[in-house]
Amino acid sequence: MSALDDQLENFAEYLGMGIVALLLALFALISYKKQRSRALLYFSISWLSFFIFSVLDSVISILPSVFWFQFSYAFIIPLNPVFLLAFIDETMNEHLGLKKMVIAFSAWAMLATFMFSINWEWSGSDYITVNPSMYIWYIEISNVDLSLVSIGFGYWAIKTYLGAPSILRPLTNKLFILGIAALISIPLEISANSTLLAIQSILAIVIAFGTILIIRKEPRIIHILPYKVYKLIIASRAGEVFYAKEWANMKPRKKVLLIKEKEEEPQKEGVASILDNQFLSSFMTAIRDAFTHSRSTGNVDLGALESLNLSYAKMLLEMRHLPISIILLASRVSLSLKKSLSDFSDEFMKIYNDCFYGDDDLPCNKLIDIADKFSEVKMKPLLEKYFWNIPIFE
Q1: According to DSSP H, which parts of 169-325 are helical?
Q2: Which residues contact 119 (CB under 8 A, 6 or more apart)?
Q3: Helix, strand or coil, per DSSP, at residue 81
Q4: Residue 307 and residue 174 share a domain
């Protein structure tokens, strides 16, 4: 085979990989545009970087350039594992862990350093080096980086499968299989066999496409691990419950007691009181009254109280609107949940403003047919708009 044939073969190979990566990035971008999930944005950027890398590699296989070869492998291709790790971290914790990102970017810096420390030459059909030991270090660091991505993805997929509600189990079963496949691909990644590396590349594409298709079909899957939402309560300032929506039952933390007979009953009573809608709405009324009294001094802002810690959950509060209090009970305080709750409360008040305000735009007590005004059918569009990402645990 001539040098030109080798160049054309490399060109076609890299360009083909680039097209596949572009399709993955576009799928993720379309989903991101609809859902505005940072995890999908990271997934898209990771494959967009791989697309740019593949296109650049295909070009420099026809128009050789040592600099662009080094630049491609030093700065562009490492973005793929870095943003895949960001995707995994976001789906598990809803934020990027500083230590993990420092490790990822440190590995990136090391790859860039090694790549530009190596003397590369164009042989006529490929790029070769006279410093093989340095290149081996580059390969080893790359393998560790890619292995961390595979381990992280496998861990996320398996943990999501174990934590998924029954309604999402059919899709998380498939995600579980993809997670196992990612773990199996690790030995293939670090092998020097061209056939095994080709199999690993195909497996990586299947895993990536399978993952984005599963997420597109059921976006709630990437929200299983960061938090669990128990219920939403909308109540009047007097404590009357207008509407309540439950997504999951709260399980108490188990306590180790010396006497077994005393273990069960106190826990049940505590959880029952916490989960009781009327208790929570009355609790909010007491808080509102205390704030209203203190606000007369001009030092307290009722809207400043955003959350409270309970024994088994966090109470996210929305108290900016005088006629109502809205409570979201969740396993943790989440920025996305706080935003969803805030946006939900604003639109709720726009829709039902006439139920709570008089002609003089002051809060007033009106006779409301709660069953009709706040029925499940009428509330469903609002819930689906602002809390679409919350899985239902039966």
Answers
A1: 169-189, 194-217, 264-275, 277-295
A2: 129, 130, 131
A3: helix
A4: no
The secondary structure of 225-264 as a DSSP string is: TT--EEEEEEEETTS-EEEEEE-----PPP---SSGGGTH
State the amino acid at position 240 in one-letter form.
Answer: E
CA 391 – CA 247 distance, rounded (Å):
7
**The total number of structural domains that make up the chain:** 2
Q: Which of 105-114, 163-172, 216-225, 249-258 has the lowest mean pLDDT?
A: 249-258
pLDDT 10s digits, 55-114:
888 888 888 888 998 898 888 888 888 888 889 888 888 777 777 778 778 878 888 888
Asked if the structure places residue 393 within a domain, the reply is no
The structure tokens 């499940």 sit at 376
- CA dist 79 and 82 (Å) reads 5
- The strand order across the sheet containing 324-330 reads 241-246, 229-236, 324-330, 314-318, 307-309
Specify whether 192 is located in the same domain as 241: no
Per the structure, the complete domain to which residue 255 belongs is given by 229-386
* Distance separating alpha carbons of residues 157 and 184, to the nearest angstrom: 13
Task: Tell me, yes or no, whether 140 and 170 share the same domain.
Answer: yes
Q: What are the tokens at 155?
A: 């861990």
Residue 195 has a CB neighbour count (10 Å cut-off) of 9
Residue of 279 and 155 predicted with greater confidence: 155
- Whether 20 and 156 map to the same domain: the answer is yes
Alpha helix positions (H), the chain: 3-35, 38-62, 66-71, 79-93, 98-117, 132-163, 169-189, 194-217, 264-275, 277-295, 335-351, 353-356, 370-373, 376-386
Confidence of residue 337 (pLDDT cuts 50, 70, 90): confident
Instruction: Show which of 198, 223, 248 is a domain's final residue.
Output: 223
With tokens 């007491």, the residue in question is 286
256 and 177 assigned to the same domain: no
The CA–CA distances, whole Å, from 209 to 48, 149, 302 equal 14, 16, 47
Picking from 35, 108, 99, the residue whose alpha carbon sits closest to that of residue 76 is: 108
Task: Please give the model's pTM, rounded to 2 decimal places.
Answer: 0.76
Angle at 393 between CA 96 and CA 254, to 5 degrees: 80
The encoded tokens of residue 279 equal 């208790």
Average pLDDT value for residue range 211-216: 90
Q: Which residue has the tokens 């580059």?
A: 138
